[in-house]
Give the backbone structure.
Amino acid sequence: MTAKVAIVGAGPSGCYLAQALGKLCKEAEITVIEKLPVPFGLARYGVAPDHQGTKAVTRQFAKLFEKQGVGFAGNLEIGTSPSAALSLEELRALFDVVVLATGLSQDRSPGRDFEGTPGIYGSGAVTRLWNSHPEAAEFSPEFGARVVVLGAGNVAIDVLRLLAKAEDDFAGSDFPAGGAYDQVREIHLVGRSPADQAKFDPVMIRELAKIPGLAVSIGEGTALNSGEDDKRLAALRDLATAQPDAITKKISFHFGWPAKKPLRSNGTLSGVLFERDGEEMALPCDSVISAIGYEDDGKLNRSALLDGASTHETGQIAPGLYAAGWFKRGPQGTIPENRADSQKIAALIAEEIAAAPAGAEKPGVAALQAQFGNRMTSYSDWQHIDDVEKAAAPEGRCRAKISNLPEMLAVIENRRQAL
Ligand SMILES: Cc1cc2nc3c(=O)[nH]c(=O)nc-3n(C[C@H](O)[C@H](O)[C@H](O)COP(=O)(O)OP(=O)(O)OC[C@H]3O[C@@H](n4cnc5c(N)ncnc54)[C@H](O)[C@@H]3O)c2cc1C
């Protein structure tokens, strides 16, 4: 009997899991199911477009589908939303083991006062736009000249850097051509924790030093000398010391300031008020981008599924049902951090498969092919999209991403017709 395994979500955790499981269970039929027509999750659609070295992890994942016999079933959403192809229960009826590796795509809100205010955006939405995610096709934020970035992790620094760069600084990336934000003149990054507890990596700060024309300051009330040995604080001190001859943009860092509420003038966003220990700081701005974490989109009832404490630890929700990656652990951890976690879950799944009594064979991917036929996209469809995007790269860019779903599906369909 061949064990049929469906991994839902073709992001890093799903790919690492398929990789590890493929080695442990050579006989298993492993299919990675993805709601988008194309694979790789945040490696393609979250990692900053000017970090092509990080995105190159997709070449490692490609081997899964090209050489290791793992199947890809794209354009199939699983869950409760009206656009879903199958519910989780329907999927479980077709496969022996289902792994949920669907990530966390919703921006965490900075607070009720901030919700519904024009000019306030989430970093997930903004980075999807900058990565040409099909779900961002209709999103057109207006940042104005002064932007406040809430948060002090690596994503907040990504946002700051991409707002700070000029068109020429995007050479070699796949940032949308002509998309640099020249009108942005002033960016404030504000973290709620003190600087020595902020989560950014020093390399992210050192990278900012390479952008010409940035005048960097450290906001009042931000102590950077508390951790003399802290590499991150040292990087910040170095950055703030080196000032350019000609200033194009100003950036400033503020730590230890929780956001209290947005400020409005005539109904329009005019700034953000921060407060700590009864002291207030108001920063005028035209827009806010909050980069304070992510949560579940609710389409797979994550909180109910992960109710048992041991699921967070082992990944097993029930026999034949597992969680992996950000969906399991929450919105923390880099791409490589998903690897070890996925390997542990793969080992558990392999044990379950080895111990399973012989029973009726489940249909697996054949049932998806029978039910969804043409609608389902394959790995070779993705390879075609990849070729088309690279061939369309304008000068100074490594690719021109197809940013809307109908166009992506039309490109796939045209090629199928031509075959
Ligand atoms: C903006 C941003 C920038 C980042 N930059 C870096 C970086 O530079 N370096 C680094 O190491 N880490 C970075 N990270 C962290 C890294 O992206 C994560 O560690 C990693 O992507 C988590 O992998 P995952 O597979 O759990 O989730 P994801 O990458 O989110 O993959 C989930 C996949 O599931 C699919 N999916 C969702 N719902 C469904 C459904 N219902 N049915 C079917 N498919 C579904 C999604 O389309 C997606 O393809 C960044 C994260 C963010 C948010």
Notes: The chain has a mean pLDDT of 95. The CA atoms of residues 239 and 272 lie 25 Å apart. The chain has two domains: 4-104+296-377, 108-293. The first strand starts at residue 4 and ends at 8.
